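ok trying this again, last paste got cut off
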Amino acid sequence: MDHFRDGQHVRLRSRVHDTYYLHADDDGESVSISRRRYSLNAAWTVHIYHGDGSHLLLHSAAYGRYLAAASKPASFGHRGFRAEQRDYDQPVLAAIMWQAVEVGSGSGGGVLLRNIGGRYLRAGGRLRRYLRWNTRVSVEYTDNVSATMHWIVEPIRPRARPPLIPGPIRVSSP
């Protein structure tokens, strides 16, 4: 849990797809990986679950929903089950609870995110221009942990002040 602090904002970068980040999709339900690092969809707020302190919740900065391991099968071309965004008040709280398991030594090793039910968060497979469907994120029970399950935690540093708002757009009269 050294990688996560309560209230911290983070991005989760796929270790195998180096420039892709865990991304809350615009439908408010799906989760994928995307290159849009500076998008609000790639920002997640960490909440440490106070029941035992060893579980964390990842809250989407874009849609206010939590990263969850669903019981629905993963989409075509993926193994395991769907990862999705879910509300906190849905009946199965265990679906949104995660444990961070450190991988390797030092800060470059990253983490595995294991759901309380024992399923690991997995980035999509091959990323090619013609296989955009393969960017979905899934969760899987496995004893064979692969590189697609490794995530690098990148803290988002707070700014001293809010970003500047651009001035008005000038429109010429017809």
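PB: full thing came through this time. The domain at 9-155 is CATH 2.80.10.50 (Trefoil (Acidic Fibroblast Growth Factor, subunit A)).
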